[in-house]
Write a structure and sequence with these properties.
The protein is α+β, with helices and mostly antiparallel strands and 108 residues long. 31% of the residues lie in helices and 35% in strands.
Length: 108
């Protein structure tokens, strides 16, 4: 049961990250800052022991004003959650074959 709780918590954290930050203004100048801010937000949450966020700069299509909005295709995130000794790793990444940002468990 503890593993199920850890997996659920990981999914909730990635879902919250996704819905909180999609649409945020992003450019080459602030992409690293935004990645670190998202990681920091993940790490604040209960049971999170590690977090990584990557914005795919190759997918940025900047407007004439020098920025764009963060889109699902640009975002990759990983979170490691530990609950009562049970540890799970979950990732959120764009799946080209599905045309969808899929969350999945790794190392459970």
């Amino acid at each position: 049961m503890r593993k199920v709780v850890a997996a659920f918590e990981a999914g909730i954290k990635l879902g919250a990250l996704f819905h909180q930050f999609i649409g945020a203004p992003v450019s080459e100048k602030n992409a690293e800052i935004l990645e670190k801010a998202m990681e920091s937000c993940l790490r604040l949450q209960p049971y999170v022991v590690d977090a990584e966020v990557e914005i795919d700069r190759g997918r940025m299509k900047l407007s004439k004003f020098g920025y764009t909005s963060l889109s699902p295709e640009m975002l990759r995130a990983k979170v490691v959650v530990e609950f009562e000794g049970e540890r799970v790793e979950a990732v959120l990444e764009w799946r080209e074959d599905l045309g969808y940002p899929l969350m999945s468990l790794r190392n459970i």
